[in-house]
Amino acid sequence: MDFRWAYKSAVATFTDLVYRVPEDRWDGPGLGEWTLRELTGHVVGSALREVPRALGGPAATVDVASPEGYWAFAQAAPAEVVAAVRAAATEDARKTAAEFGVSPAAGVAEYARAATQALSAAGDADVVLTAVGGMRVREWIPTRTFELVVHGLDVAAAAGAEVEFAEEVLAAVTLQAARVAATSKEKTLVLRALTGRATLPPDFSVV
Questions:
Q1: Checking DSSP bridges between strand 133-136 and strand 29-31, what pairing results, if any?
Q2: Which residues, other chains included, contact 151 with Cβ-Cβ below 8 Å and sequence gap of 6+?
Q3: In a 3-state reduction of DSSP, which class is residue 189?
Q4: What is the pTM of this model?
Q5: For 25, 27, 148, 177, which has the most beta carbons within 10 A of its beta carbon?
Q6: For 65, which DSSP code?
Q7: Helices marked H in the chain
Q8: 25 CB contacts (<8 Å, ≥6 apart)?
């Protein structure tokens, strides 16, 4: 699947979803400690605002060569680094949420426009600086699509709204998660669970 089409499709679906969130849901539960407004702020920061920033910063070398490598790098990071990254993500989510005003929809649409325009101007093989080091555009953007889809489903669940990402996009993100699982130490457990031979523990995640 064309990674550009997948990302832009996910952006359009997510933006449409945000416009349909009931006004009385924004300050209610979102995900974990985040409100729905803060969850949306996290998606904007990680999957929309980050795109123009990263694509505008060339890197000298390729440090991570695949989408699953991106997530594996994060999994292998020391606990204190992971804790610091999560704290920074929460701070950014809350700051972005505060900037939205009454309704996040207009702000999300503006960030979406800037992200897709930046992607249109980038080359597939351009090497850009990401949170885990240098990556080619064609290998990094699918991780942003992953963020949009996974958290888009979170937003829909918290808002009590329907969302339908394109079937091809859902399949691509599911395959990305499966490839991450296949490179993890839990691959045997995941395989057994997928074939009805085991049960995954509560809150299990491959990322």
A1: unpaired
A2: 31, 39, 42, 43, 46, 47
A3: helix
A4: 0.94
A5: 148
A6: -
A7: 3-19, 36-43, 50-55, 67-76, 79-99, 105-120, 137-159, 167-182, 187-194
A8: 36, 158, 159, 160
Q: Are 71 and 207 in contact (CB under 8 A)?
A: yes
Closest CA to 12 of 160, 152, 162, 142: 152
Query: Left if phi > 0, otherwise alpha if psi is -120 to 50, otherwise beta: which for 133?
Result: left
Phi-psi region for residue 164, left (φ > 0), alpha (ψ -120 to 50) or beta? Answer: beta
pLDDT of residue 68: 94
Neighbouring CB atoms inside 10 A of 23's CB total 8
Instruction: Compute the Cα dihedral for 65, 66, 68, 70 and give only its sign.
Output: positive
Rounded Cα–Cα distance for residues 112 and 152 (Å) = 14
**pLDDT above 90 (res 11):** yes
Q: Give the Cα separation of 142 and 95 in Å (integer).
A: 25
Please report, as a single letter, which amino acid is at residue 133. G
Tokens standing for residue 22: 């009931």
How far apart, in Å, are the Cα atoms of 127 and each of 14, 17, 27? 26, 31, 38
Structure confidence at residue 110 as a pLDDT band (50, 70, 90): very high
What are the tokens at 130? 């990401």
Q: What is the pLDDT of residues 147-205, one digit of tens each?
A: 999 999 999 999 999 999 999 999 999 999 999 999 888 999 999 999 999 999 998 98
